[in-house]
Each structure stands twice: as structure tokens, then as C-alpha cells.
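#data-curation
PF: Archiving a pair of folding outputs for the training set. Convention for this channel: one message per protein, sequence first, C-alpha cells after, nothing in between. First:
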Amino acid sequence: MRKSLFALAALLAMTGAAQAQTSVTLYGVIDGSIEYVSRVGTAPANPVASGTTTAPVGPRFDMPRAGGLSASRWGLRGTEDLGGGWSALFNLESGFDWDTGNLTTAPLFNRTSIVGLSSRDYGKLTLGRQYTSMTDGLIGFSPLRFAATYEPGIWWMGVNYRESNVVKYTGQFGGLTAIAHYSFGTAASVQAAGTGQALGAGETPGSMKDNNAWGAALAYNSNGFGAGIAYDEWHPAPSTTPGNTGRERKAGIAMSYTTGPWKVMGGYRYRDSQFNTGATLIRDDYWFAGVNYQATAALGLQLGYYYSNIKQFRQTPTGVTTNPANPQQVAFVADYNLSKRTDVYIATGYAHNGSLINDGQFTAFLFGYPQAPGQKNMVGVTTGIRHIF
């Protein structure tokens, strides 16, 4: 009996030691809302072939699958202390449509799937599906905190804002964060399906440039001042003709200043996207500015303005180059915290010369705001509840 008790005590001691060195966390966000949109059309079955919306046209009152402020998700993350300031880490994260429970896109861990090593002194190295350097470096400057519904985040960062087969380094040096990544071949995203680009399936044996991507960013935050600069390059390629790549280049800069309950921010993004023939797919400049105000401990207010100067857009490599009207949008969020984990909100957006969050052919109408033929303005209002676990 004494031996049994001693063995049990030793087992419990070892279990406790293992738990002290290793942690695994289940986490997630569920954000559900009800939305009214003033006037929308019906998206084309093939955005590349036609690119135009059709009737019926009218207001819409429903539940947006993306949620109002955050995309719904769940995930697992963990670390193991290796000693000497080193640790191993992993993160698996899956997005889902809160209103139906369906996966947002395949595969299961469509948002993040990484494993890596982290050092107290030298930074972090991660491998797998993850955000680009540009996304990590600039996302903290978004006026609505990269809100799911009324912030043109995908337009800003590009349809490749998250990539597969990536090796990424992140280093923290006081107030400065340095980030660099390389993708050996990122598969086509759902958002990219309507752009007209010939997109392959990812890594291509014998043709290393096909679908590869790389970028870097620097971000600085100290004493209320923040600044970021980033570059991103991607080479989408058709699977039918390896070695024949397109190219999308983006560069961005942003700044912010925080004092008391106020935070102001603004930024700019350059983009030049080309088909694999060298013809221009889209060339645009994107500007944004915003202000956040923490009115009370529970109530936060966010206001954002977004302007896109679309200089060239071509539907197909042999299509006619156009210079469409420049989209503008204003968005506002009032967010009230019921607790540390639960908040309620109301958000509204007004778009001129386009759809909300610049949704259209270039994003394959994925976000549900197809512009009615001849329409100049669109208004959306959504209210909901978000719980973080």
C-alpha cells in the first residue's frame, strides 16, 4: 500500500512538472449580428466572365456570415519551455460562419497552422500557414481594428494577406518589431477567384517562382507614437503552364498617435498587380485615416475614412483597360463592453462610387455587397454581440 501511494505521488509530481513547462489554450471568438443594407444587386455567377451585377435590386435585411466586428473563429495554441530562454510553439486556427456553423473556407485550419521556435533574445521563427509581414506590421493602424464588416481590410492588404507554406521571422527589439517572410508557394485564396488572375495550387516542383511570395515590415511603438512600413510581393501562376508567373507588388506606410483616451491614425498603400502576360490587372493607391475615442471605461468609438484611387483596372489580360470611379467610404463603430469577454455594438458604413468595403469583381463579391447597376451609393447598418473565449 505504501509503495502504491509513493508511486502515485511521484506520478502526480511529474505531471505537475510537465504542466508547468507546457501550456495549451483553447480560444475563440463568436460574433453574430443583424444587418440592413440599403440597395444591393445580385452577384454574377462568374465574376471574371461578366463582372456586372444584375436584378433583383433592393434593400437587404439579414444576418451577415462574417459578423460585425470580428470573423468568428476557434483555435488551439500552445508553448513548451525548452530552457535557456527558448520555447517551442504551435497555433491552429479555424474560421467559421457563425450563422450556419460552416467552415468559412476549406481546409479545417484555414486561418493559421504553424509550428515554431521562440527565443527570449533572438526572436521567433514560425513555419506554416500564417499572416504576411505586411499584415502583421500594419494591422495595428486600422481605424476599426480590422473590423470584419465595414473596414476594407482585404482591399488594403491584398487577397494574399494570409499565405501557406510560409517561413517567417519576428523579432522584438524594444519598441521596434521586425518581420520578414517567404512563401514557397501559396495556394489560391477564395477571394482571389474572381480577380482574373491565373492562380495555381501552391508549390510547383521544378518552378520555384510559381506562386511564391515574400515580404518584410518594420513597426515602431513607444510613448504613444506608432509607425509602420511594409513591402509585399506575390507571383501567382497558372497550374497549366508552370514558369509563367504574374506579379503583385504592394508597399504601405502608416502612423498613429495616442494621448489619453484618443488615438489618431492614417496611412497609404501602393499596389501594382499584373497578369502573367505582363498586362496590368489593377493599379491603385489606397488612403485611410481614423480616430478612436474611449469615451468611458466600457464605451469605445471608432471612425474611419477610406479612399481608393483606381488608376487602371482590366478584367482579363486581353480586356480593355478602364479607369473606374474612385470608391470612398466612411464607417463608424460604437462598441460597449458588458464584461471583459462580451461586448455589444452598432456599426454603420456609407460608400460612394462603389460597394461597402470595396466589394466587387476584384474580391469575387465574396463579402455580399454586389452593387446594383448604375448605383452610386450604399449604406449599411449592423448591430450585434461578440463573445471572446
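PF: Second:
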Amino acid sequence: MTHAHITAWFLALVLFFIALGLHKSGKAKGFRVVQMILRVFYILIVATGVWMLTSISTISLLYILKSAVGLWVIAMLELILIRTAKQQRTSTLWIQFVVAFLLVLYLGFKLPLGFHFL
């Protein structure tokens, strides 16, 4: 299930940057379509994350923290796209996204279900 979770995350990040590129090039309809597909991937990410979380025999506080930070990353992705579509400033959201993303990666690789190269 870890591979499905990582694949969903990777594809969501790719779709996120595709959506930003479509918006920048002025293709509003393509932007909306990719944004809707991206929302399906958010559901897949949460579903695979919950599935992995329920498969653990003892859930420590770090797993709960990683889950909360993962939801924070998803929220930042969505808010960046919404504010970009409304042509509002997104610099604070980008900073939050980078901090949350690095934190969730660190926790993901540190915890026993993650890959062990750190």
C-alpha cells in the first residue's frame, strides 16, 4: 500500500504543476479539468493513507502528526490553485507548502512504514 500512496502523491504533484502551467498559459478549461482530476487524487491519497494507518498495530504520535501534516500539504496545494485562479497572492501559501512538504517527507522516511535511506 505504501507504493500506491507514493504513486498517488507523485501523480498529484505532477498534476498540480500541470494545472499551474495551464493557468499560466491562459487555458482556463484545461486548468479546471486538471484541477478536478487532482481532487480525485486527493481522495486517493487520503484513502491510501488511512488504509496504511489502520494497518499499523500501534499508532504513535508521529503517525498522527504525519497524517495532519499530510492534510496540511493537500490543503496548501488546493489553496494555491484556488488563489492562483482568482489572481491573488500565493507567496505565503508556497512557503507553507514547502515547509509542510519537507516535514511530511522527513516523517515519512523516518517512520517504520517508510523507505529507510535517511
